[in-house]
């Protein structure tokens, strides 16, 4: 039986009336995304039509999921909200703090030894506040959610950008910062600008070496890393219906890499099969009762140009396997000669040193079985892998079942390392080098979602390429980036030319899923007696102090850094070894913006202090400004804050005394995170004004006392020679968000309202 089945039935009990009313109000057929949004309004039954990309709307999500790295700060904030229980079903999943190094058993024990303080904290907080807890080793959050919690037509939020994975089971699932999650945990509405809609019509059927991963690699190529910003991507058509549920999850998962709010598919028979295979026939039965409300209306899919803001069509029968990268997930290349040409032109290493399969994107039973079919061919045809091989199963259920069915044994025959059911290399938790910063130039291939510089192994010289699990397996065996398994031959141990056949696999395990201990701990019904202890001298955990409001008189602010080019959340708050400090705001703030490139010297973590005239590390320079009582601003380029949902990228600058972030454009989650922490997240009205900012500038906010929705702010920029420029800064704050700013943070406002 499913978790929270009564909650799911309650959602379905309301969906018919609410969707029918939304059709009347809007006067048109509805997409699936619109049905889910209108069915989850905070006010209940719809009373007005919302304008896409403009109206801020309050929603009532059905559930929340948190991973251990982000859960620490989220729960530290929730502890300040004055509530005894979470208001909606919530889970915590321990998957980020496990480093891949030797293999599953030893790596898991090492994580327990080094992070036990954090795991105990998360378990105790979960137990106290009615939160489901998934132990270290239980699996990667998004695979576990797909197996246990996702349901067609539902809405969930999660403190990880790849929460969107649950769209594979027909949800609107959205990655948010922890402060957003705290709002919903505390029983408040969750606010989102009503998204625009991008429709992707899939025709034909995947065949041969082409996989669901290639669909999203192609979409990323078309839309780029910011093309989905502010939009929900909805997939439909015969091609969508022909894919497995976990294949749909893969596509939705990597939608985070195009900046999409989320992605989703309509309920169909593949979702029903998956629900029944994962012991949720009760959910499938309930969904079947309202199934026409769990997909887009037929008129929408017949004439998509009339109902979506943008429509893309992809013929799956003509789609080729792709490799995306390096250093960005939207740079797409067809396998084979196209890669030879591009790699040679750009001096990318063609030799592949590692192939990695797993992550929340591609770690299902189906993914492992298809990759194992290639590995088995290598064994049968006398081939050995030319690159090293690593496997991360998605969950203990997947791992146990794959082990039972001999799949993991096939990989082990090729000397693959089976890592823990955890994120591992995908998020930088990979002990590949003792000194990553001085590691050599090389190429790796993986089935993950992100491939920013330093992302997997901390080495800025690692060229990471994203591909399907079966293509990763083939290229790992060949050891060359430009290997094309559809046309190229390999030489086996006997000197014979052999060719790999097309991959095969199982959508679901033929003998069903099986697991001995799935790693779940249910909370106590009454957690009032549970004590949460945080040592005052802990390096890992620190109780929070409320932020002081920045006020409306910001003058004499100094420039901390003008970031050049791509500045992701990895640049603002690195992962990897810094994950150990995710629950200690002051300690983790020592990584604040250390990966951002200073536009004035093109170096990282090396900025000029206007107090001393000397250059030093960003956090050290900023701490000196804070000690002197001087506010600062950060200036950035396009899509600032792209990538992970980590709110630390907003909390760290806020904690250190940064008042405003002024950029050409924001990634959605990061902009919201800045607002939640009571900061100013602003954009240049004229992008060319970015070039006016000089290294020794001082900033005066002239009309912040008139801060209002839709009203730009005027900033006087005073240069070192005494000359001045006036810059107009746009913002997207509504009145409620301005109240967050006035109170110092959204959490401060929640506490104030709960105390009233």
TrEMBL record:
Pfam families xrefs: Aconitase, Aconitase_C
Domain of life: Bacteria
Cofactor(s) this protein requires: [4Fe-4S] cluster
Domain Aconitase A/isopropylmalate dehydratase small subunit swivel: 559-687
Pathway involvement of the protein, from the record: Carbohydrate metabolism; tricarboxylic acid cycle; isocitrate from oxaloacetate: step 2/2
Enzyme class: lyase
Catalytic activity as recorded in UniProt: citrate = D-threo-isocitrate
InterPro entries noted in UniProt: Acnase/IPM_dHydase_lsu_aba_1/3 (IPR015931), Acoase/IPM_deHydtase_lsu_aba (IPR001030), Aconitase/3IPM_dehydase_swvl (IPR015928), Aconitase/IPM_isomerase (IPR050926), Aconitase_4Fe-4S_BS (IPR018136), Aconitase_4Fe-4S_dom (IPR036008), Aconitase_dom2 (IPR015932), Aconitase_mito-like (IPR006248)
Recorded GO MF terms: 4 iron, 4 sulfur cluster binding; aconitate hydratase activity; metal ion binding
Family: Belongs to the aconitase/IPM isomerase family.
Protein's name according to its UniProt entry: Aconitate hydratase A
């Amino acid at each position: 039986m499913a978790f929270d089945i009564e909650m799911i039935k309650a959602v379905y009990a309301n969906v018919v009336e609410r969707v029918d009313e939304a059709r009347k109000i809007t006067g048109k057929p509805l997409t699936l995304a619109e049905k889910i949004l209108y069915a989850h309004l905070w006010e209940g039954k719809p009373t007005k039509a919302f304008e896409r990309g403009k109206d801020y709307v309050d929603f009532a999500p059905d559930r929340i999921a948190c991973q251990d790295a982000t859960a620490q700060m989220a729960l530290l904030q929730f502890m300040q909200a004055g509530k005894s229980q979470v208001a909606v079903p919530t889970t915590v999943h321990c998957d980020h703090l496990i480093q891949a190094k030797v293999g599953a058993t030893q790596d898991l024990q090492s994580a327990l030894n080094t992070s036990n303080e954090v795991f105990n904290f998360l378990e105790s907080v979960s137990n106290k506040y009615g939160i489901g807890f998934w132990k270290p080793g239980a699996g990667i959050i998004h695979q576990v959610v797909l197996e246990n919690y996702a349901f067609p037509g539902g809405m969930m939020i999660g403190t990880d950008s790849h929460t969107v994975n649950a769209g594979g089971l027909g949800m609107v699932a959205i990655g948010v910062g922890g402060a957003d999650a705290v709002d919903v945990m505390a029983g408040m509405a969750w606010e989102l600008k009503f998204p625009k809609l991008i429709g992707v019509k899939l025709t034909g059927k995947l065949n041969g070496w082409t996989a669901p991963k290639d669909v999203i690699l192609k979409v990323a190529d078309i839309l780029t890393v910011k093309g989905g910003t502010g939009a929900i991507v909805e997939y439909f058509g015969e091609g969508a219906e022909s894919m497995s549920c976990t294949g749909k999850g893969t596509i939705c998962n990597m939608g985070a890499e195009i900046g999409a709010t989320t992605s989703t598919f309509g309920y169909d028979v593949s979702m029903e099969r998956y629900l029944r295979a994962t012991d949720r026939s009760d959910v499938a039965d309930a969904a079947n009762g309202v199934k026409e409300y769990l997909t887009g209306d037929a008129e929408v899919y017949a004439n998509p140009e009339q109902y979506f803001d943008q429509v893309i069509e992809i013929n799956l029968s003509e789609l080729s396997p792709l490799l995306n990268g390096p250093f960005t997930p939207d740079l797409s290349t067809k396998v084979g000669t196209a890669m030879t040409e591009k790699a040679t032109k750009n001096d990318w290493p063609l030799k592949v040193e590692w192939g990695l399969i797993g992550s929340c994107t591609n770690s299902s039973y189906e993914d492992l079985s298809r990759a194992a079919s290639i590995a088995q061919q290598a064994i049968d045809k006398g081939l050995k892998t030319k690159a090293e091989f690593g496997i991360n199963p998605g969950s203990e259920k997947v791992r146990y079942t794959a082990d039972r069915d001999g799949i993991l044994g096939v990989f082990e025959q090729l000397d693959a390392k089976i890592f823990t059911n955890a994120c591992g290399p995908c998020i930088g938790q990979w002990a590949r080098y003792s000194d990553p910063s001085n590691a050599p130039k090389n190429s790796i291939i993986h089935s993950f979602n992100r491939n920013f510089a330093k992302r997997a192994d901390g080495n800025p010289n690692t060229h990471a390429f994203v591909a399907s699990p079966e293509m990763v397996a083939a290229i790992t065996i060949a050891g060359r980036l430009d290997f094309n398994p559809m046309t190229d031959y390999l030489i086996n141990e006997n000197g014979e030319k052999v060719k790999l056949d097309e991959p095969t696999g199982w959508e679901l395990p033929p003998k069903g899923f099986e697991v001995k201990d799935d790693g779940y701990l249910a909370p106590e019904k009454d957690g009032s007696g549970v004590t949460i202890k945080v040592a005052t001298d802990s390096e890992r955990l620190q109780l929070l102090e409320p932020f002081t409001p920045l006020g409306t008189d910001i003058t004499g602010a100094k420039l901390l850094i003008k970031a050049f080019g791509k500045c992701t959340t990895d640049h603002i708050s690195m992962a990897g070894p810094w994950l150990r400090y995710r629950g200690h705001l002051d300690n983790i703030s020592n990584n604040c913006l250390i990966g951002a490139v200073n536009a004035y010297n093109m170096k990282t973590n090396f900025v000029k202090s206007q107090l001393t005239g000397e250059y030093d590390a960003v956090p050290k320079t900023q701490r000196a400004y804070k000690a002197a009582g001087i506010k600062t601003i950060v200036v950035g380029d396009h899509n600032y804050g792209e990538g992970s949902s980590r709110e630390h990228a907003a909390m760290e600058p806020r904690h250190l005394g940064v008042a405003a972030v002024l950029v050409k454009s924001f990634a959605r989650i990061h902009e919201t995170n800045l607002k939640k922490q009571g900061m100013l997240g602003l954009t240049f009205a004229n992008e060319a004004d970015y070039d006016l900012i000089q290294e020794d500038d001082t900033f005066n906010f002239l009309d912040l006392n008139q801060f209002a929705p839709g009203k730009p702010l005027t900033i006087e920029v005073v240069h070192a020679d005494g000359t001045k420029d006036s810059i107009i800064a746009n913002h997207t704050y509504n009145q409620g968000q301005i109240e967050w700013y006035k109170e110092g943070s959204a959490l401060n406002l929640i506490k104030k309202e709960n105390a009233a």
